[in-house]
Amino acid sequence: MNLSLLLILLINLLLNLSLMLMSPMCQAKNWQYQSVITQGLTLTNHNNFYGDSQGSPSLEFTEFTVSGSYQFHPSSRLSAQTLYRHAGAIEELSIDYLLLDSQLFSNAESLFGARLGRYKIPFGLYNETRDVAFARQSVLLPQSLYTDSQRDLKLAAEGGQLYSSFFSEYGQWDLDLYYGAISLDNISGFSEFPPEATFSNEAVAGLRLLFESFNGDWRAAISALEGKVDIFFNLQDLDAGIPLSADVDGEVKQAEVYFSLEYNWENWILSGEYRWNRRQTNFPVFTFPVPINPEDFAAGFVDFDLDLNIKQYGQAYYVQGKYIFNPRWNVYLRWDVVYEDKNDKDGDEVVGRPGYINFAKDLTLGVLWNINAHMLAGAELHKVKGTQWLSELDNPDPFDTDEDWLLWVMTFSYRL
Predict the structure, then answer these.
(1) In order along the chain (416 residues), what is the average pLDDT of each group of 10 residues?
(2) Among the four 132, 133, 253, 307, which has the fewest Cβ within 10 Å?
(3) How many domains does the chain have?
(4) Which CATH number does the domain housing residue 282 bear?
(5) Bridging pattern class, strands 268-282 and 311-324
(6) Which residues form the domain of 321?
(7) What's the sign of the alpha-carbon dihedral 89, 256, 177, 320?
(8) How far apart are CA 37 and CA 15, in angstroms?
(9) Strands 268-282 and 58-73
(10) What is the pLDDT, as a whole number, of residue 215?
(11) In this structure, are strands 268-282 and 247-265 parallel, antiparallel, or unpaired?
């Protein structure tokens, strides 16, 4: 057992002991506590997903969360969750969220509050509960919108959030506004830049308007966010044969809009989401001389402008139908699509990488089995075309991947 997992298991044990020592009344009144551990198995016929899964099962997917909240005032509470996550080449122990939540105003028709600290970014229907296995609608969330290989981009922020709820005769309206800092590295959606690149001033701002009918039949949301990051690297780090050594200091901006809908009808849950996004870079244009004839420098030189700026529009969507046989068993079918550049869906204009890295089309069949109140098992079969959401850490050579591949995922979760 590695040191990180041992540490988080020790934290879990100490929390359990502390709760046992409290009086039952205090524990029930002020404290809420839960821990969940999930172990997964993945197998692929081509490519790697959560470890070396090609041709042989990989057990390199483990999640362990310890969460709790303390209601220290009728309108205020502290909440936190610690997360250990091992997903293929990525292994981390982190604070998933840690926040102070205060309701500043409430009456029969509305409420208003604020959160301060590290919070899950509210977008779509499922981002805030993506690390809680028992709250997920499937074994893996749709990778087109909730990509695990780029989770740091939109997982959580450190800053402030304002929220409000309004109650009408039709249902409840929730509005979230937020601004905060995010932590990025070169594995989270910035693979086009060299590994030596450094990031700074990462920030995200956005809003979400969510409606839920009182009878629980409908949930609908509109989400919008914009993230910005400053990036610094040297031109020669691009490894593109550029003869000029110059420092590049620029920024990357990404804006996204989501439309989400979920409908519950008898034993069916029908859901779908659509995302539009724009990525824009702002870098200086560099000019340097190149020989007219590389074999005869006496022929002279011409100026070449190196422009790294792009404006790219992408889109993603999924539709899913789930049938609930009984409280323990349900099955679902999902069609999930993402295009890195909606104006180049087949990747014909991609340079230096295979074109199918620009998209992914995923047909998923899955089943969830709620064994009892503490145990959950699930399995999914994915038939995928394209590699847009594959982790480049588990697949470092894009030309050593296949466009068409199968993915089998099984997980078992236990909660206290």
Answers:
(1) 50 49 49 88 94 92 90 88 89 88 89 94 91 89 87 86 92 95 65 70 92 92 92 71 71 92 95 94 74 66 70 94 95 96 85 88 97 95 94 88 96 92
(2) 307
(3) 1
(4) 2.40.160.10
(5) antiparallel
(6) 3-415
(7) negative
(8) 15
(9) unpaired
(10) 86
(11) antiparallel
Dihedral sign for Cα atoms in the order 187, 193, 195, 198: negative
CA R_g for the chain: 24
Instruction: Write down the pLDDT at residue 190.
Output: 59
List C-alpha distances in Å: 9 to 4, 82, 99, 141, 386. 9, 11, 22, 26, 38
pTM: predicted TM-score of the whole model, two decimal places: 0.84
Give the pair of three-digit tokens for residue 15. 């929390």
| Residue 401 contacts residue 393 (beta carbons within 8 Å) | no
Contact 367, 331 (CB under 8 A): yes
Instruction: Measure CA of the first residue to CA of the last residue in the chain; give whole Å.
Output: 21
